Model the fold of this input.
Amino acid sequence: MKTLCQEESIKVPKGIKISVKSKTVEVTGKHGTLKRNFKHLPIELWLANGGKEVKARMYFAKSKQLSMLRSVCSHIANLFEGVEKKFEYRLRLVYAHFPINANIVNGGKTVEIRNFIGEKIVRTVHMLPGVTCEKSATTKDELVVSGTDIELTGRSSALIHQSCLVKDKDIRKFLDGIYVSSHGVKEE
Done:
């Protein structure tokens, strides 16, 4: 069963500039500018009622294909939240015996991880562009990864997590590593 025409809309928050040109959305707020390209989707994207609303429309689509309308609106909402408040991922250093030592160098752009299960190797993780990492001021053994782009921020924290995986051991017993404990919009 195909739907003739389906529409989704999302309100533009106050204090945010947005431009939509040939399925490329550019959002500017107090934390900078983010760009996102939706050219691969068979949808219409445009600004409605004087730039206060973004609308996405699709013709002759099955229900599985209609789901991309909501996805596009969610992606644009994430752009709004990113330039307005920033996203942050909190990672905890977990160890049983050998304390993991994480150093942040290069002004928050690089993380060096030492003494992971007593290994001598230094693991170096570079943050993706526009993402910074710092040690938590309140909690011991916690890293805070923050940035405006939700995808780059999430990927950077995943890189840190994947750099400390236990190989050739029973992972139910060897639980050492760096795990994401919470993520979301930064509280001011």
User: Anything to note?
Assistant: The chain is about 20% helix and 45% strand. Helices lie at 63-84, 150-163.
